[in-house]
Design brief:
This protein is an alpha/beta fold. The chain has helices at 21-27, 38-47, 62-69, 83-90, 109-114, 131-143, 161-166, 170-173, 182-191, 229-232, 251-264, 268-271; strands spanning 4-7, 32-36, 52-58, 77-81, 98-103, 120-126, 148-151, 176-178, 195-199, 205-206, 215-221, 236-239. It folds into 2 domains: 4-103, Ribosomal protein L30/S12 (60s Ribosomal Protein L30, Chain: A, 2-Layer Sandwich), CATH 3.30.1330; 109-271, Alpha/beta knot, CATH 3.40.1280. The protein is elongated and about 60 Å long.
Length: 275
Amino acid sequence: MPDVIAIDDPDDPRLADYRHVRERDLVGREGRFVAEGVVVLEKLIHGRRHPLRSVLIAEKRVEALRPLLQGLGEGVEVYAAGQAVMDAVVGFHIHRGLLAVGTRREPDLAGLIAGLPAQALVVGLVGIANHDNMGGLFRNAAAFGADAVLLDDGCCDPLYRKAIRVSVGAALTTPFARAATAAEMVETLVAAGFDLVALSPRGEADLGDIKRGARTAVLFGAEGPGLPAEVLSRCRTARIPMAGDFDSLNVATSSGIVLHHLATAWDTRRSGAIS
């Protein structure tokens, strides 16, 4: 386990990555991100998708967290500070008592698609600008076995601190890549042999009638505008049947319903999978 470095000065330059967290959420961290809490740190350590730079812990929690800290790789600094010092550095009360800073490592779109298995489920996101929804979408993608998440240029950052927290660390473990446009995302998926399913309240088929082939990509748009017409025209479209004249669900909720269905709804004629 790395040595724990005691910090008693909130102006200590070694804590520069942790200073004024909320303000820097808005302006970016030049290729770095902040993760909060024990569960998220566990995902970051064990997922090994993004290199971990350092950890900042409330000193009262060091002993309890030693088993977790033993999993840190070489070169990861571990800082411990009193609660008052920690709060002064960060700019608000850190009740979880644990923050970590990592370095972003993201594949490009073509590279991610090329590395997917022969049987793959991909989630495509278009215009998802709400960080709570983004976190929920990643959490559901991980829960139901999606192999990757693709984002267009209108999507917010999955490694934004709140999105990571809402995803319960799934944004740190689920592979994702960004397309320049929704059209590029669609073309790349089609070229790689994916069957595209788009969710829309005006979908042509009920979700229950949609089967999953060997390579399936399910696309979700932002609440309100939904997916653009040019994207819908390239996909099979599906709707989630609802009671009465209600036709809308939160996009993260919708994704959970759809991904649960696709996790088991194999089309054995097209995939060779066992139902």
